[in-house]
Design a protein that fits this description.
The chain is an alpha/beta fold. It has 17 helices and twelve strands. It has two domains: 2-177 and 355-385, Glycogen Phosphorylase B (Rossmann fold, 3-Layer(aba) Sandwich); 182-352, Glycogen Phosphorylase B (Rossmann fold), CATH 3.40.50. It starts with a strand and ends with a helix.
Length: 386
């Protein structure tokens, strides 16, 4: 059985979700042949320049333009993010991979991955059923295509959106957003604190900039440092080199401390050790924090999906949404002074979490793959008899 998990690395969330699903498929079906493919990784440089760069430029320098474009994609019921020929030419290696791998199911974990899968079906490159995994609390009409066999969404609102746009109701499954199994495991918070030289009981604030769009994480960190509040800050810049440089330039003096990290592979442990998380509201991050029962202060949401992600968690009582750096720092300090409120938010976060999402999605993918494999096997037997 061949399972292809297809994504595009716009930020790190889609890739993390893809890997979480792939790992769970292997856990449930150890003999399955599972492959994760990032369509952008092997895309033609010209395709990346035309498809990816305008998006980043809008987010960094003209977010209002992105907001209008995102709204238009919903209101005008856009059917694609790019012409089909652009995907066929720009992502040629992905179509070749689909043809040679011969998947029994394609799990599409990003809207353009859904488009590529549908194009491959239309071109008769594959007959595999397509399972679309939506990793935000907001979907968009582009997901809805006749070639798609099933959808998974974060909540009932996402299901209602897809139905309104024409998706069959019985093809939509409310599973939540898949996160890595490590976020369901308990970590030694004390050991994590010691790893970063924290030997006292002062509060720990973890800051994350997210993988998409501009981040004022350095400004928030500086505002917290200038508050003269005793606390420890751990800032994770990820692959944002500009944010990393800005954070490294900050001068933080007692009673505060600052540890600046690049890419961190121990985020579950850091969340376990933290008292408050400060982050942009990516779909994966919201659920990862919820799994850790960690109160969250959101800042700088990208218009559209990230704003909806933040609103869902705020409405659940597990997070606070803020504007500028000063307001963000003030919200963090207020939470650190109010243990009762932090506890209430932690309880709400636990209720908000969907720890079985990756299991349910992997099981659905395997169900579709089994059905596809059985049909293919029966067709092959019939061909041999004939």
């Amino acid at each position: 059985m061949n399972v292809l998990v297809l994504t595009l690395s716009f930020g790190s969330g889609h890739v993390r979700a893809s890997q979480a699903v792939a790992n769970e498929v292997v856990a449930q079906a150890p003999t399955a042949n599972v492959r994760v493919v990032d369509a952008l990784a092997d895309a033609h440089p010209l395709f990346r320049m035309c498809y990816e760069w305008p998006y980043w430029l809008m987010l960094r320098h003209a977010p209002s333009i992105w907001n209008r474009l995102n709204s238009a994609r919903h209101e005008q019921m856009h059917e694609s993010t790019a012409p089909g020929w652009a995907f066929r030419v720009g992502c040629r290696k992905v179509f070749q991979a689909i043809e040679t791998f011969r998947p029994d199911v394609i799990v599409a974990v990003e809207v353009a991955a859904c488009e590529i899968s549908a194009i491959a079906t239309q071109a008769k490159i594959t007959r595999a059923p397509i399972l679309c995994v939506i990793t935000d609390y907001e979907a968009e009409p582009i997901w809805v295509k006749p070639e798609v066999s099933a959808f998974t969404v974060a909540d009932e609102s996402g299901r209602t959106e897809l139905i309104d746009w024409g998706a069959p109701a019985d093809s939509i499954f409310v599973t939540g957003i898949p996160i890595d199994a490590s976020f369901s495991e308990r970590c030694d918070g004390k050991a994590t604190r010691l790893r970063y030289g924290i030997t006292d009981n002062l509060p720990v604030v973890v800051l994350m900039g997210g993988g998409m769009g501009p981040s004022r994480m350095d400004q928030v960190t500086n505002a917290l440092a200038n508050s003269n509040t005793p606390l420890h800050m751990i800032a994770i810049a990820g692959r944002d080199r500009r944010a990393h440089r800005r954070l490294r330039k900050l001068r933080v003096e007692p009673p505060s401390t600052l540890s600046v990290l690049g890419w961190a592979d121990n985020v579950p442990a850091l969340m376990e050790a933290a008292d408050v998380l400060v982050t942009k509201p990516g779909g994966l991050t919201t659920l990862e924090a919820a799994a850790a029962s960690l109160p969250v202060v959101f800042f700088d949401p990208i218009p559209g999906a990230e704003f909806i992600n933040a609103k869902r968690m705020v409405d659940a009582g597990a997070a606070v949404l803020t504007g500028g750096a000063q307001q963000t720092a003030h919200a963090v300090l207020s939470l650190l002074e109010d243990e009762t409120r932090r506890h209430a938010m932690a309880v709400s976060a636990k209720s908000f979490a969907r720890p079985n999402a990756r299991r349910d999605i992997a099981a659905l993918a395997l169900e579709l793959a089994n059905a596809s494999w059985s049909v293919a096997a029966e067709n092959e037997r019939a061909r041999r008899v004939a």
